[in-house]
Design a protein that fits this description.
- With 69 residues, the chain is an alpha+beta fold.
- It has two helices and four strands.
- The chain has helices at residues 5-14, 31-39, and strands at residues 20-22, 46-48, 53-55, 61-63.
- Helix 1 crosses helix 2.
- The mean pLDDT is 86.
């Protein structure tokens, strides 16, 4: 089941997450709109997953090139 951005923010807050990364953003929202809506419920760092970006558990983000199709 998918969450709304607000649900994802609630889950991150309840879990005391260090970071929230939004994925599977519906067509009716831009990534920035989803981040804004999630931030109403969670005040930690929020990103939206983008192709070619790798997130690691030590709270760093690296951008890589897109793999060949």
């Amino acid at each position: 089941m998918h969450h709304t951005p607000e649900d994802a923010g609630d889950t991150a807050r309840t879990a005391r997450a260090h970071r929230l990364i939004l994925t599977h953003i519906g067509r009716s929202l831009t990534p920035q709109e989803a981040v804004t809506r999630a931030s109403a419920r969670y005040n930690g760092p929020i990103d939206h997953a983008t192709l070619g970006t790798t997130y690691t558990s030590d709270h760093t983000t690296t951008t890589t090139t897109r793999p060949p199709d």
